[in-house]
Design goal:
315 residues, 26% strand, elongated, eleven-stranded mixed beta sheet, two-stranded antiparallel ribbon, alpha+beta
Length: 315
Amino acid sequence: MRRRTAPPPSPLPQRDGVDPVRVRLPGEGDWATVREYLVERLRGAGAGVVEGMFSRGLVVGADGIPVAPDAAYVPGMYVWFHRELPYEVPVPFPLELVHRDEHIVVADKPHFLATTPRGSHVTETALARLRRELGIPELGAAHRLDRLTAGLVLFTVRPEERGAYQSLFRDRQVRKEYEAVAPYDAALALPRTVRSRIVKERGVLAAYEVEGEPNAVSHVELVDRRDGLGRYRLTPTTGQTHQLRVHMNALGVPILGDPLYPEVAAPVPAGEFRHPLQLLARALDFTDPLTGVEQRFRSTRVLEAWADHGDRAGQ
């Protein structure tokens, strides 16, 4: 089997903790110039954007030299550039550092902060923040936590070690524990293990359950209850998108603040940080694949629906 040749290193530095975009020109195509190809590939960026990037020398080759607007199309050629990013409303909550050593960084992420750059969330992400604040430009995420979910996220310091930690999650060698606040239902028998097949289609906001062999397994326990609310411990053994949210909704106790389950709510305006999803990645336990150390990390965050409700109940 022929090995893929590794791409050359980026000639551009990060900007605000965000990597430049790397594009490899396809092996086949009828574009005459590099510019023509990028105009077609980035047609969603708006009229004149690519032309402006070339005129300002913002598209560079592997040597770091700007690519001329009339440079010939060369199949397999790499080019780099930084996207012109729109303003992002800052997420006004701290990203807490839980652990840092020569191999990993563990952070306690707030609600509303994405883990890694994606879509309209680029600079306001946990990865970009940590790269800037810790001065570790090669920091990478070993897994991902939903933007609306708070709690523990594991990052790797060295790119060559990332695969070892990603494999822990892929091979289900990490024990993950979540906490959620949802309605209390006296008729719901707990604890129980929920098994179902979950499908998440690209471009569709909500995942859903279908008939078939289960690909999602969650253990659900009731930890405490008061005045119509329950505090639940959720332990997933698989990692399907929105798995815990789908399973809690299927049990008839959707997580408080969930904008997708049971119904997809209207989009909220940028900068709206009220009503966070009451879901927290509370614990991460695993054996470090490089050091053999038994790692146990815990979030110190408190879900506000439970805390606020307790304050009101005690008044």
